[in-house]
Write a structure and sequence with these properties.
Blueprint lengths: L1 E2 L5 E2 L4 H4 L3 H7 E4 L3 E4 L3 E12 L3 E11 L5 H8 L7 E5 L13 E5 L8 E4 L3 H8 L1 E2 L1 H5 L2 H8 L11 H15 L2 H4 L5 E3 L2 E4 L6 E4 L8 H18 L3 E6 L7 H7 L3 E12 H4 L10 E4 L3 H15 L5 H8 L6 E8 L2 E10 L5 E9 L8 H15 L4 E6 L4 H7 L2 E11 L2
Parallel strand pairs: 1-6, 2-6, 5-10, 13-14, 19-20
Antiparallel strand pairs: 3-4, 4-5, 5-6, 6-7, 7-8, 8-9, 11-12, 12-13, 14-21, 15-20, 15-21, 16-17, 17-18, 18-19
Length: 421
């Protein structure tokens, strides 16, 4: 398996130690040689490589720190002298590793091959860290930690558009408390079952979701999952259970799969400031954007979406008809020569600072002409007029790079798990 050096990550020092004053460091550091940091009354820490396997076949090397369980250090000194003979060692992780912050303090085992500069993490009893080092991850998941990493180890340079990590954390918190509950609170018929909410529609698949921490685990969580599945089974209806990458418990996806739910694919959740997205965009080739509430347009855009995403999107017609008179839903189509070549919608979350951007799929012959960016800018201008501060997107890997170039920030991932009768 190859290792892409461009994806490598290096952490400056253990997180705990990074908060100390220069005076405290000078008084307590016994030695530091670039890979071992010995601190009085704190312990001996060592840089280790945390390998993250990507579904592209590459491996990302994240250098983290672990406090050692090496007794008086003599065994460590022997290992360093002999270039890591492969003797396993144990310790506790001393860095927050985004997007898996809960692995801080997790027990780790590590070992190295002869001649290696740093040992490599080989295992952990912590369930999330075990998943991190044994599963294959999409590159989009790793992107969740990029903004945090860049701000953690260096100060932003002149003209750097990356916002401080505190802003990213604040965005995620605002998303969790404001925008996310709208996934179920917007529907008067939503039913609460334990810690989750269930919505059943007549003309499309059902929906289940819950807060970031379900406060459920084991058999209790399995029972809640089974009740949602059985409810929709009795209706002969499929259902989507939506999850987010930072949710707890961490094993919710595995428990959903054990109950017969299948992943519908992971998307990246990005948030941007509407005022930064509303710049002018010039479209050529006779492409025109216009807002619509017409049923015929809904049918045309649904047919386009079906072709773009290669799955039946006819449900959009009924969905948009239900929102035809809703001022918080703005539908925009991109037309060329009388053909709907792309479409998108803005869904403002009442009582919050958020608006959601949905759709945006463009027919293949019309891609690369700025339509996606123009649809974002149009909806951003509408959002500003309505007093909306933030725009949120669940992005595919096709649209994520465009959104990042526009200034959107990755905050988490979203994965729908589908159960079919």
């Amino acid at each position: 398996m190859g290792e892409n050096q461009e994806l490598s990550r290096v952490y400056a020092e253990p997180d705990d130690f990074a908060q100390w004053t220069e005076l405290d460091r000078g008084a307590t550091v016994s030695w530091y040689d670039g890979r071992v940091l010995a601190v009085q009354d704190f312990g001996m820490t060592i840089r280790v490589v945390l390998p993250i396997s990507l579904d592209t076949g590459e491996t990302v090397r994240i250098e983290v720190w672990a406090v050692l369980d090496f007794g008086d250090g003599a065994e460590l000194a022997s290992e360093l002298e002999n270039g890591w003979r492969g003797v396993p060692a144990r310790g506790l992780l001393l860095n927050v590793v985004e997007p898996w912050p809960e692995v801080y303090g997790a027990p780790v085992t590590f070992a190295g091959e002869p001649g290696e500069w740093l040992p490599r993490v080989t295992g952990s009893e912590h369930p999330v860290l075990h998943r991190v080092i044994t599963e294959k991850w999409p590159v989009s998941v790793l992107a969740l930690g990029r903004f945090w990493f860049e701000n953690r180890v260096r100060a932003p340079g002149p003209g750097d558009s990356v916002e401080p990590v505190t802003d990213v954390s604040a965005l995620l918190s605002a998303f969790d408390t404001q925008a996310r509950p709208s996934e179920w609170e917007a529907y008067a018929d939503a039913v609460r079952d334990s810690e989750v909410f269930r919505v059943a529609w007549e003309h499309r698949r059902g929906f289940v979701a819950g807060p970031p921490n379900l406060s459920l685990e084991g058999a209790e969580l399995d029972a809640v999952i089974a009740r949602q599945r059985d409810f929709f089974a009795a209706r002969g209806q499929s259902v989507e259970w939506k999850t987010w990458g930072h949710d707890k418990p961490a094993d919710l996806p595995q428990r959903l799969e054990a109950a017969g739910f299948v992943s519908d694919g992971r998307e990246t959740v990005l948030i941007g400031r509407a005022e930064e997205m509303a710049g002018p965009v010039h479209l050529e080739g006779g492409i025109v954007l216009r807002e619509t509430r017409d049923q015929a347009d809904f049918q045309r855009l649904a047919a386009t979406a079906t072709e773009v995403f290669e799955r039946d999107s006819s449900w959009l017609v009924d969905y948009l008809l239900d929102k035809q008179d809703d001022p918080n839903t703005v539908v925009v189509v991109a037309e060329a020569g009388g053909q709907v070549v792309s479409s998108a919608r803005l869904e403002i979350v009442p009582g919050t600072e958020f608006g959601g951007l949905w759709g945006g799929g463009t027919l293949a012959p019309w891609r690369g002409k700025g339509i996606y960016r123009a649809l974002v800018a149009h909806r951003a201008r509408v959002a500003i007029e309505r007093g909306v501060k933030y725009l949120q997107v669940d992005a595919t890997e096709d649209s994520r790079p465009i959104l990042e170039r526009l200034g959107f920030v990755v905050v988490t991932t979203a994965t729908g798990y589908i159960w079919q009768p």
